[in-house]
Amino acid sequence: MNYTRISGAVLAFATALLLVSCHKERASMTLPSLSGTLKVDFPEYVLAGEEINVLPTGFYRNDETDTLLTLYWVHPITGARDTVRTETDPDTIGNDFIFEIPTDTVGKFTLSIYVAAEGYSLRSTVVSFTILNTELDEGSLRGYGFLDELNTFEDTRDSYRYYYTTAADGHDWMISNLAWNGAGDAFSGEEALSRIYGRYYTWNEAVNACPEGWHLPSDADIINLALAYGGTSSDGVSVESGAGALMGNIYMNGSRMWEFWPDVRITNASRLSLIPAGLAKLNNGKAVYGGLNDYAFLWTSDEVDGVSAKARYIYMDKPAIFVDAFGKESVRASVRCMR
């Protein structure tokens, strides 16, 4: 057997394959690119089990703005590919597709979306989002540990149910910020966050926001609550200590909300479970949100004058419960209802 001849034949065949492969690679590298920029309207925060309607737009062949393209995405958790539109099916042009948010996980994920067209190179984009679950101690917010000892109350306006505790001051207090969407706004306009941080209200909205039978606490109510759990006040107005008894050592999607500080001993003895939801400052009607994970800020029912009212607030690194006057229509803040 002539091994030299066979080896030469194999080498020639391999060379031919390599030339074909290189030719295909060069052809692929020289494919024209789709024009435009892919745009996907996808919320930054979503609720577990929610269905998101997605309509990617912006890519097209050359100057054809309505070209039908193939569209598919890769699932952020399972890795499965799902084709939702094909360029050979005219019935799918212009249709949005539904992305179902998983029900059994929370956290931050990315969704990869791809657009393809015959004779063009593949284009893609990535959207990031955070999955939230509103079930206390079983979803995004964990660390309460006493919910089975509490009663619940249903707000008949939206059927949302709140846990409440009967505190040492003799009053019932909701242990979550009010989330009624008949007024106020969600943090940075992200509606999914309403069920996590509550909504943010101007004072004029806050005084009428609580459900029937409940009301906005007065400044004296908050002082008395703090004193009932060991807080101190030298003048009956300032509260120099006691913040830790009102603060909940709560975790949001696995991350501690109140940063640890040795000067603040978080006991949540009141079970009020305050979280550092921050606030929004209004400038010409535009809300600028901040202070998340830094401080809790609550309206009281006390007016100071025609344009301002009192609010109590707690910083992550200080044991005091501060008070000051803020514009009734210049700040959006959290609301805790009591009865």
Pick out its properties.
4 helices, five-stranded mixed sheet, alpha+beta, 339 residues
Can you give me a brief rundown of this structure?
The chain is an alpha+beta fold. The protein has helices spanning 3-29, 194-197, 203-206, 219-228, and strands at residues 35-39, 45-47, 51-54, 57-60, 70-74, 81-85, 97-100, 107-116, 123-132, 141-142, 151-155, 160-166, 172-174, 251-252, 255-256, 279-283, 286-290, 295-303, 308-315, 322-327, 331-332.
Task: Show unreliable segments.
Answer: 1-28
What letter string, H or E per element, gives the SSE order?
HEEEEEEEEEEEEEHHHEEEEEEEE
Average residue-wise pLDDT: 88
User: C-alpha Rg, in Å?
Assistant: 29 Å
Helix content: 10-25%
Give the overall form. elongated
Q: Would you tell me the structural class of the helices and strands? A: alpha+beta
Strand order across the largest sheet: 2-9-8-5-6
Q: In percent terms, what proportion of residues is strand?
A: 25-35%
Give the end-to-end Cα distance, rounded to a whole number of Å.
101 Å
By DSSP (H or I, 4+ residues per run), the number of helices equals 4
The major beta sheet can be summarized as: 5 strands, mixed
